[in-house]
Amino acid sequence: MTQTAIATPLHAITSRRSVKFLRGPAPKPAELEQILQAAMSAPDHGALRPWRFVVIQGEAIGKLADVALEAVKRSGDPRMTPEKEKSVREWMASVPLFVAVAQKIAHDNTKIPEAEQLLATGCATMNILNAAHMLGYGAFWSTGIGTYVEDVQAALGLDSLDYRFLGFLAIGTPACAVPPANRPDYREFVTEWTGPL
Fold it and tell me: Where on this chain does FMN bind (predicted)?
């Protein structure tokens, strides 16, 4: 454990925030097991367990950078300038652990709407983010690194006919102090229903 672990679950939820700039160490193997096991507690209509995760660490991160950045350049994305590529490579080299996130498409399912399967995968992913935070690590959900380029998804073994690819979780030790997030008041987003209008 790298920072002081968050002891109060409610405080963990309300104090979690995305941390993009990370460094080693990554969660230890036993901690990573806890983090990934937390995903299994997500609400999941029909127990389809649609979430899929691919762990990328060590030398595999450099291989991911090569594959993803080349695929993005081949796709013709004008945002992948040499400066942007250098910046992304430096960022990825500093992150000790990535977890790719995908939803398994249940082709033979006739009962559970796909939107509910996608929500279950999102909930499983949120459990990973919360668990990492509770163990004192930082995490960031990125939809960069070629998330929407099919060649990247295929390179990870997630054929687009069978999986909806949803990005990468970067997990590690915060590289700098992380100030509290400025959260809105929940009342701006909540109404109470008391009957038909």
Answer: 16-18, 45, 141-143
Strands 97-104 and 138-142: unpaired
* Cα-Cα end-to-end distance for the chain: 52
Annotation: binding site for FMN: 16-18, 45, 141-143
Distance CA 195, CA 43 (A): 28
Please report, in range form, the residues annotated as the binding site.
Answer: 16-18, 45, 141-143
Q: In 52-86, which positions are buried (b, 16+ CB within 10 angstroms) versus exposed (e)?
A: bbbebbeeebeebbebbbbbbeeeeeeebeeeeee
Domains of the chain, with CATH numbers?
22-176 (3.40.109.10)
Task: State the angle between helix axes of 114-134 and 29-39 in degrees (0 to 180), rounded to the nearest 10.
Answer: 150
* The pairing of beta strand 138-142 with beta strand 163-174: antiparallel
Distance CA 150, CA 162 (A): 12
